[in-house]
UniProtKB/TrEMBL annotation:
Cellular component aspect of the GO annotation: plasma membrane
Pfam families: Cons_hypoth698
Keyword Transmembrane helix among record annotations: yes
Listed name of the protein: Conserved hypothetical integral membrane protein
Domain of life: Bacteria
Length: 348
């Protein structure tokens, strides 16, 4: 490599290093905190906690540190986010999908389509939210919480300040679901409604709870069969992120081409790569130790992306969004609970 090229590479790394060290520190702090028996920490999970710690840090540090960290923060928001989403595919295998059954997939598809359509209709037409904010809230509720919000934001070119607003709805109502479902499962009338079917209730949990971490927390309070079905149904729902991103990319591309700005939105190529990894996982091409390491790396990359997002977020922007996003999130949560129950009973 020529000397000039090496100097340019070294200079680029020097620019990235402050921001990467900042997001790494915040992410490791979040990952360590979730190991402690703290109720609130367990409710929000490591990704959201990384964002919350970063929001706090962003308000405390000076503008000089923020400026020096900008290159690394941007790298985390862009490249590490995509790398984390790609690696997320290694958590899914075709055997898992088969064990949940076709009914789980049908419920997931109806939930995702119904919630996204409702978010767009109600958010834009009735609550007068901008289209991108409504879609982000819908994606977080419909698919996989904060990860879906982060993946959808660059695809539709959402405003950066709209992302934490959407994630706030995921935190609030996903945590509500995490507390509600174990209580519901213990009620005799719920057992009678589901005909004492652990599998059916597991499908409901997986198809309607926002975050994977929140589903895992609910599953810990359920019998083994219900817990396994809940997690697998949720992972099937995560896989629907790919077609959703492709549809959103097409819709927002179409909108751009009809306007005076003909710029094309980037295709979510990382989502297509994500779809290939369940095949890799199913064929047992990777040793278990390497697979475990990649799972940890996936969580770290996503946490660093959340930290980078949170560091640039100001609470004033969230307050400025008002109550309309929360009203939309509450409506979607109610629809998930009621509609998800109806779909589960119908297809079980």
């Amino acid at each position: 490599m020529p000397l000039q090229q090496r100097l340019q590479t070294a200079n680029r790394l020097a620019q990235l290093l402050p921001g990467l060290l900042l997001t790494l520190s915040l992410s490791l702090g979040a990952l360590l905190l979730v190991q402690l028996p703290l109720p609130f920490v367990g409710m929000v999970g490591p990704l959201t906690l990384a964002m919350l710690l970063a929001i706090l840090a962003g308000h405390l540090v000076g503008a000089r540190i923020e400026k020096r960290s900008e290159a690394g923060l941007q790298f985390s928001r862009h490249f590490l986010l995509r790398a984390g989403i790609i690696l997320y595919g290694l958590r899914i295998s075709f055997a898992d999908l088969q064990s949940a059954g076709l009914n789980a997939l049908l419920i997931d598809m109806v939930v995702v389509i119904g919630i996204l359509a409702t978010a767009a209709w109600v958010g834009i037409r009735w609550l007068k939210l901008d289209a991108r904010t409504a879609v982000l809230i819908g994606a977080g509720s419909a698919i996989c919480g904060a990860a879906a919000v982060l993946a959808s934001a660059p695809t539709i070119r959402a405003r950066q300040q709209a992302v934490p607003v959407a994630i706030a709805t995921v935190v609030l109502f996903g945590s509500a679901a995490m507390l509600l479902y174990p209580w519901l499962f213990a009620q005799e009338w719920v057992q009678a409604l589901f005909h004492n079917g652990d599998t059916a209730f597991g499908r409901l949990v997986g198809a309607t709870t926002h975050e994977v971490a929140q589903v895992t927390a609910v599953a810990a309070a359920l019998p083994t069969e219900a817990a396994h079905t809940a997690v697998v149904t949720k992972l099937m729902r995560v896989m629907l992120l790919v077609p959703v991103l492709l549809v959103l990319s097409h819709l927002f591309n179409k909108g751009q081409s009809d306007s005076n700005t003909p710029a094309k939105l980037p295709a979510p190529w990382f989502a297509l790569v994500f779809m290939l990894l369940p095949l890799v996982n199913s064929l047992d091409l990777l040793p278990e130790q390497l697979l475990a390491l990649l799972h940890q790396l996936d969580q770290l990359f996503l946490a660093m992306a959340m930290a980078a997002l949170g560091f640039a977020t100001r609470l004033s922007a969230i307050r400025a969004a008002g109550w309309k996003p929360m009203i939309l999130g509450a409506l979607l949560f109610a629809l998930l609970l009621v509609g998800g129950t109806g779909m589960t009973l119908l297809l079980s």
